[in-house]
User: Fold this.
Amino acid sequence: MRVLVSKKSLADALARVERIVPSRSSNPGLSLLRIDVQDDALVLSGSNMDVDIRARLTADARGSGSFAVTAHVFGQIVRALPGEDVTMELTESEMQISSGNYTTKLQLVAASSAPVLVFPESHAGSIDARLLSRALSAVKYAAAVADFQAVFRGVKLELGETRTRAVATDGFRLAYYHLEAGTGLEADVIVPARSVDELLRVLDDGEVALHLDAGQLSVEHGGYSLNLKLMDGTFPDYERVIPANYPVSITLPALSLAEAVSRVALMADKSANNRVDLFVKDGQLQITAEGSFGRSQEAIDVTQEGTDSEIQLAYNSKYLIDALTPAAGDIRVRFSGINASPSVVNDLGDPAYLAMVVPLRTS
Amino acid sequence: MRVLVSKKSLADALARVERIVPSRSSNPGLSLLRIDVQDDALVLSGSNMDVDIRARLTADARGSGSFAVTAHVFGQIVRALPGEDVTMELTESEMQISSGNYTTKLQLVAASSAPVLVFPESHAGSIDARLLSRALSAVKYAAAVADFQAVFRGVKLELGETRTRAVATDGFRLAYYHLEAGTGLEADVIVPARSVDELLRVLDDGEVALHLDAGQLSVEHGGYSLNLKLMDGTFPDYERVIPANYPVSITLPALSLAEAVSRVALMADKSANNRVDLFVKDGQLQITAEGSFGRSQEAIDVTQEGTDSEIQLAYNSKYLIDALTPAAGDIRVRFSGINASPSVVNDLGDPAYLAMVVPLRTS
Assistant:
């Protein structure tokens, strides 16, 4: 059986599939990539148990059949191929890959050794890929990385008829991104943050088809199909903890604040939550930090609302900087009061984004 | 005491000094950077015991004095400074650094806590910095990284009246770079390969002043002074092992050979020296490799001398690729015979460079 495919499209698809397929696994079948040759198509698929992925490429294919190969070896070879096109000649036991003057013969394994993956034939919902990508990218930093209750390591997707919202929190900070656009689905699901990363890598222009079934969210977009296993558990009732009243708020460019906090935080004590102190008074924000090597400070002029009050709060500088990163232009930071009562960041250029950071307890 | 200096020149100098000063050390004095304020100059110095470094910067300085500070903390702060200029106000115990709206106060330590470094006042020799840089860069890959006799982890510098040569070998491959230019010195010295890396970072245009004394090579160039501790031991008599006769040689672009070997070697067994086989016959070079995942091959047309013979040899592909990397254009590869007799690579565009690779024993 003979397949002719462009090197670039094969390498691009493999790069995304190979990231997911583990290069080592206690289950050797899991490190295999399944190759299906169909009329005018080459289909690559693999899984890491949390994410199944399938890539469909247009190819000049004669015949049809199914094979499996060690994913990372195939990936290395394809990336190194010298020519613009790749010819693959497949037999039951061997795949000969030729490109330019280079030829290699790779051992094949029976397709039945690879995991059996099932992707839905049709999809009940859909959303614009750029919007979904922006929503997930904006909030995923707020998910916990480890040592936390499982749901904190996920991103919640609230899929409604007329609204879609992505939310992440680790209990110390929270971010959500609210779209006034529905998906045709009606459900709240929690996707592991690491699976969100893999989904983001395939999202491009156009529509994403979505389908919910049997504990997984299936996505189809631009030649890629993914099944994302959902997390069990109850996501915290986050709206309850967002304060209603803010006696003081300030407006300034997100980048100015992020850069100033980064500089000042160089002196902060890493073993004391990278603490920086913010002091707002008379239209000026003063940022200070102190640690074993010394003390630093920086002042920024801001537009202040609630000028009859002053605010003095301490934050983990890393959380503050993370909250500012998705915002491009001006932001408003709203302070709900003293000590450990949450502060809220709004992106004035993109009101869909909201971040909340809980200040450090200082007394 | 007050010093005004440009942020860029301070950050550039610190980047080079900070690389050498260890951020942690069982000897706490070693992680200090010494700061000397002199008339119109700021002098930074530090050491890792193998390399002493001193950087002299033009600065607007009032007063004079010596201080010490934890190098990596000072480095982090300077890199983050927002302005184009830096003002440093120094007292016995504190340095206040200001730039733009940002101010920080850093604890100082007595200068006597930092290592005492002595750099020569005058230098007996010199050489063009670009030539020395090219010579050291071209050969240092051939030095051993670990688990070898000490001298194999060094680069030998043969300093003569009318010639200068840099040589490195790990016993399996060798590289030298031969300059028909003297230094005014007359000695053979061995510099640790890691110290060579630090020297390469300060070499730029112009002359390098050189001085040999008390087991160290001192270098002065473009505001930087370095003392490089020399290695004891006898460097192998490498010229003896370079073969005199080569029945077959081939000429081809270095990049074509390196790329083809890289591609074919993807199938080579990492546990069997990344073996690739080269077969030269009738103006064609065939490269093959075989491993547990399969077999690959590539053929390249070459200009062959000694066409009545054919050559079949095996190499560690990594050593072959390393030997080709310093060469830009065409290279000649000369084969001295069969099995483990060395092959030699000459860069036709730069005859100063020679590399030797010992083939793998295959019987």
Q: What stands out?
A: Chain A touches chain B through 31 residues (CB under 8 Å). The first helix of chain A runs from residue 7 to 20.
